[in-house]
Design goal:
The structure holds two protein chains of two kinds. Chain A is an alpha/beta fold. Chain A has two domains: about 15-170, NADH:ubiquinone oxidoreductase-like, 20kDa subunit (Rossmann fold), CATH 3.40.50; about 180-230, Alpha-Beta Plaits, CATH 3.30.70.20. Helices cover about 35% and strands about 20% of the residues of chain A. Chain A has nine helices and nine strands. Chain A has helices at about 1-10, 25-40, 75-90, 95-100, 145-160, 160-170, 180-185, 195-200, 225-230; strands at about 15-20, 45-50, 65-70, 70-75, 90-95, 120-125, 135-140, 205-210, 215. In chain A, the strands form three sheets. In chain A, strands 2-1-3-5-7 form a five-stranded parallel beta sheet. Chain A is globular and about 60 Å long. Chain B contains nine helices and eleven strands. Chain B has helices at about 5-10, 25-35, 80-85, 95-110, 135-145, 175-180, 215-230, 240-265, 275-285, and strands at about 15-20, 40-50, 50-60, 90-95, 120-125, 150-155, 160-165, 170, 200, 210-215, 235. Chain B is globular. Classes of the chains: A alpha/beta, B alpha/beta. The interface between A and B is large, with 42 and 55 residues. The structure holds iron/sulfur cluster (4 copies).
């Protein structure tokens, strides 16, 4: 992995990270910056080299990990240039949040926003062939919790593959919505009725039905963020379990 | 190798105690004392409201009334409210192993609810033979008695799950219970809440229960409360007989669950919790034994 190469071959051991903004509300970047408050203890191992909100640099430097929020607007030349540059200059790309990972609210857009009168189209990063080799991890959430971003960054620094593995899996799934929770967990007979999905849902698209002991899903309010499926204890389980 | 012995069914624990409370149930007393001693600032658990068992966030001593019917759903749906809205930082959780599983995942990854990792002060697991909806309870009682009865309490006594209804006491055969519980509960292999700080088992008398203390944190908590209020919660080491009878009830239920898991494997459905490898090994084992060997503990 790139980080191992870095440790072996480079003098500057600081992990250079950047945060990039495509078509999005910037909520993910705010969550990312929120997380920075908590990571003071490992700030000496990480350097934020690019962020349109925090750093003054306009030119994108070479970096180790590019965290990208937002979907790619195909009609926007700036986006096309940016994604090529990120691909060229970074060693690893992480899509942060629903817009970048699954399309999120952008999926629901039918365009017509001012100042662009044409119908724009928005494509999540996980579907862009150009960056397929570099985009290794996708983080669900709208926005992801700062605590998740902190744990993710720590796992990246510590090469904790157990932790990272599900995010690698999520990067190869094109969609994650409440429908997937229903089809992957509830309809397969795995739902234990714990209610974690309701707590994870940012839009209350999941509500808990006490009478059937399972979640109810309202598709019209789902923003395709993937949190419910990722948080459900019955979806994936490489986290510490009681020993048998 | 997987064995259906005490260490698999009950998991690791420090000591099991028969617990008697002066007032209320032992688990009510435990949390009330914890509130009084400032060991917790909130309790996430089920409570009875308007005759229904619902998830509830308890914020003060004396508010928690343990539902005598130990079935409920959706406990973790209040997690965000507890931690992000009320900003509780010493939360206790009392629920089944699957609820604690959801909590563990939220703590480990940080998905679902922000900063849960450091906000939980105690996890008390409930020994659970399967979760069942109100309708399921009605159907189960109809199956066993041929008429509608109202479930008042449920407890475990001498190798049996007992339902106390408005018409009397009733032993619940595990294979009948297995039909009416939630489908996911048929595949559950952690009925005794391994991984919690303390596992709680309700006994027949309302003020009697079993505390199976597992972690340092559970041990320290109970010891501290014992010191502060020795008369309110009396603990006496549980004998091996008590533990054996619990293990035998769990074994009976787990065998049914394993059977249901194998049914899934046989028709090629995905299986929960187990990694493919672990299950394949287990499946081979299962096939290599005779049904008559069950009693001999061949696992
Ligand atoms: S995922 Fe949500 S919070 Fe993040 S940029 Fe998109 S809309 Fe905003
Ligand atoms: S149901 Fe809620 S948590 Fe699940 S994908 Fe939709 S918005 Fe996200
Ligand atoms: S988180 Fe998963 S297991 Fe829990 S209620 Fe939701 S779907 Fe069911
Ligand atoms: S049997 Fe298992 S899955 Fe079902 S409620 Fe009990 S602990 Fe949860």
């Amino acid at each position: 992995m790139f980080f191992k190469d870095k440790v072996l071959n480079e003098e500057d051991l600081k992990l250079k990270i950047g945060f990039f903004h495509l078509s999005s509300c910037s909520g993910c970047q705010v969550a990312f910056l929120d997380m920075f408050e908590k990571i003071v203890e490992f700030l000496d191992t990480v350097e934020l080299v690019y962020s349109n909100m925090l750093t003054r640099k306009r030119e994108i430097p070479f970096l180790d990990v590019a965290f990208v929020e937002g979907a790619l607007c195909v009609e926007e030349n700036y986006h096309l240039r940016l994604i090529k540059e990120i691909n060229e200059k970074s060693k690893l790309i992480v899509s942060v949040g629903a817009c970048a990972s699954f399309g999120g609210v952008r999926r629901l857009s039918c365009g017509n926003q001012m100042p662009q009168p044409q119908h724009n189209s928005f494509i999540p990063l996980t579907e862009i062939e150009l960056i397929k080799n570099k985009l290794k991890y996708a983080i669900p959430g709208c926005p992801p919790n700062p605590s998740l971003l902190e744990n993710f960054l720590l796992a990246l620094l510590e090469l904790d593959y157990d932790f990272l593995q599900p995010f690698e899996f999520i990067a190869s799934s094109n969609d994650a919505s409440g429908f997937n929770l229903i089809s992957e967990v509830v309809n397969k007979g795995f739902c234990v009725g714990c209610g974690t999905c309701e707590t994870a849902c940012p839009t209350r698209a999941i509500s808990f039905s006490q009478s059937c002991g399972k979640p109810n899903f309202t598709p019209s309010t789902c923003v395709h963020c993937g949190s419910c499926l990722a948080a459900c204890p019955q979806s994936f389980k490489p986290y510490p379990q009681p020993t048998y | 190798m997987l064995r259906l012995d005490e260490s698999f069914l009950l998991g690791k624990y420090k000591k099991a105690f028969k617990t008697v409370s002066k007032e209320g149930t032992p688990i009510e007393t435990l949390f009330n004392l914890m509130f009084r001693e400032n060991l917790i600032d909130g309790l996430l658990t089920y409570s009875k409201e308007k005759g229904k068992v619902v998830p509830k966030l308890i914020l003060r001593e004396g508010e928690f009334l343990q539902p005598q019917v130990p079935f409920g759903f959706g406990l973790n749906s209040l997690l965000k409210k507890a931690i992000q809205k009320y900003r509780l930082s010493k939360l206790a959780v009392f629920g089944t192993s699957c609820v604690l599983d959801g909590l563990n995942k939220t703590q480990y990854y940080g998905i679902g609810c922000n900063w849960v990792k450091t906000a939980v002060a105690l996890k008390v697991g409930q020994l659970c033979l399967g979760n069942i909806t109100e309708e399921g309870i009605r159907a189960l009682l109809l199956h066993l008695k041929g008429r509608g009865e109202k479930l008042k309490r449920a407890f475990i006594e001498e190798r049996e799950l007992i339902f106390q209804t408005d018409k009397g006491k009733l032993k619940i055969p595990m294979e009948v219970l297995h039909k009416y519980i939630l489908s996911a509960c048929r595949y559950c292999l952690n009925l005794s809440s391994r991984g919690s700080d303390i596992t709680y088992v309700q006994k027949e008398r309302e003020n009697e229960g079993l505390f199976i203390i597992r972690s340092e944190r559970g041990w320290y908590t109970v010891a501290k409360l014992q010191k502060r209020a020795p008369g309110e919660l009396k603990l006496k080491g549980a004998g091996q007989e008590e533990v054996d009878s619990l293990v035998s009830l769990l074994r009976e239920k787990i065998l049914l669950n394993i059977d249901s898991i194998i049914d899934r494997v046989e028709i090629g459905l995905p299986v929960p919790k187990w990694s493919g490898n672990k299950l394949r090994k287990f499946y081979r084992l299962w096939n290599s034994i005779e049904t008559s060997d069950f009693e001999e503990e061949v696992f």
